[in-house]
Specification:
It is built from twelve helices and nine strands. By secondary structure, the chain is α/β, with parallel strands linked by helices. The protein has one domain: Ureohydrolase domain (Arginase, Chain A, 3-Layer(aba) Sandwich), CATH 3.40.800. Strands 1-3-2-4-9-8-5-6-7 form a nine-stranded mixed sheet, sandwiched between helices. Helix 2 crosses helix 4, helix 10 runs parallel beside helix 11 and helix 11 runs parallel beside helix 12.
């Protein structure tokens, strides 16, 4: 971690890039990237310098929420394409949620073949450091999960009253986002809980020998929580094991999609609020996998599932939680705009982005008010 703020800002300039540029391309999506630049900066040229200058104003920004895009789907494993989430979701937020605003840190510089530095040998790390930083002996990390955790560690150190809103990317990215958040809040003496919306438990210990991925990230952040049951999951419905297995094995708390339908979102969230108050929780982090929503509303994702939450049910839960607890960190994951598994007339990408933007705007607004 950078010791001084100036060192940290230098790290941001090296390890991040302007918003929307996290996917390295030559011509693909050039027009979309330029459109985002125009919306954010009012121009398409010279954006690199404008973005770097903006980083110096983080502390003075009125916004508590800072957007960080992580355009990586290397930790996924079904349909790919969530690496385009940060570019598309930013554009949708600007177009459809104009009242919502946040400081934009930009995107993590993603080498798309990499996941975490611990999986790499010295030769690969050196080659990637040379490619990213023109220095094969650089001290900076090269894989997206490693860079994300390092950047977020520094962010919470230097700007403790602000929070990161992460845009993915596959759900493995929530591992470094939540880990950095939980470490920082623990050091501040805050008791926290992770509110996790997902069709899947993400509680594997490993998947095909890889311990950090979209299906296992929750397992590996439990040790940083005050207690395992401070991980509360909503919308689960696609699992090879019963709810009792997951709660009994890991000590987490789950509210499956069918329970929310049967009991009502208001009744379920009332139970959760009672639990959180009994546990003396101070602040919440919300991690939202878009496939928590039924595939009618979120088909442009790597693993769309039937029988999920409606956007109204998800929003009911979020609104009730935000009225009782500050939401000081959040993320939106697994929006894959170029996938289209919907049979409806309207493209699944358009519908998924619309609902993802509504939920993201609510979370960003809640973070700014926290």
């Amino acid at each position: 971690m950078s010791n001084s703020k100036s060192q940290y800002l230098e790290k941001l300039e090296n390890c991040l890039c302007p918003p929307g540029d996290g996917v390295f391309t030559v011509n693909t999506a050039k027009e979309r990237k330029e459109a985002l630049r125009q919306k954010l900066y009012g121009q398409t040229e010279g954006v690199e310098n404008l973005w770097k200058d903006s980083l110096k104003t983080i502390e003075q920004s009125e916004h508590k929420a800072a957007i960080l895009g992580i355009s990586s789907d290397c930790g996924g494993g079904i349909l790919r394409g969530a690496n385009w989430g940060p570019l598309f979701l930013r554009s949708t937020l600007i177009e459809q949620q104009p009242e919502t605003s946040a400081f934009d840190l930009g995107d993590v510089r993603v080498i798309p073949h990499l996941l975490h530095d611990k999986y790499l040998n010295e030769g690969t790390i050196s080659n990637c450091q040379k490619a990213l930083y023109q220095d094969e002996n650089s001290d900076y990390f090269v894989a997206p999960l490693s860079i994300t955790e390092d950047v977020c560690d520094g962010f919470y150190k230097h700007y403790p009253d602000k929070g990161v809103f992460g845009i993915g990317g596959d759900h493995s990215i929530s591992y470094p986002l939540t880990k950095a958040y939980l470490k920082a809040k623990r050091d501040q003496g805050k008791r926290t809980a992770i509110i996790h919306f997902d069709a899947h438990t993400d509680l594997l210990v490993e998947r095909l020998g890889i311990d950090l991925c979209f299906g296992s990230w929750c397992t590996h952040i439990l040790e940083f929580l005050p207690a395992p049951h401070h991980l509360i999951q909503f919308g689960i419905r696609s699992s090879g094991k019963a709810k009792e297995h997951w709660e009994g094995t890991f000590g987490v708390k789950q509210h499956w999609a069918h329970e929310i339908r049967e009991q009502g979102a208001e009744a379920i969230v009332a139970q959760v609020i009672e639990q959180l108050k009994a546990d003396n929780v101070d602040e919440l982090y919300v991690s939202f996998d878009i496939d928590a929503l039924d595939e009618e509303f979120a088909a442009a994702t790597g693993t769309p599932e039937t029988g999920g939450l409606t956007p109204e049910e998800a929003m009911t839960i979020l609104k009730a939680l935000s009225e009782e607890f500050p939401i000081t960190g959040a993320d939106m994951m697994e929006i894959a705009p170029f996938t289209d598994s919907s049979l409806a007339g309207q493209s699944s990408s358009e519908t998924t982005l619309r609902e993802g933007a509504k939920l993201s705007a609510f979370l960003i607004d809640a973070m700014n008010k926290a």
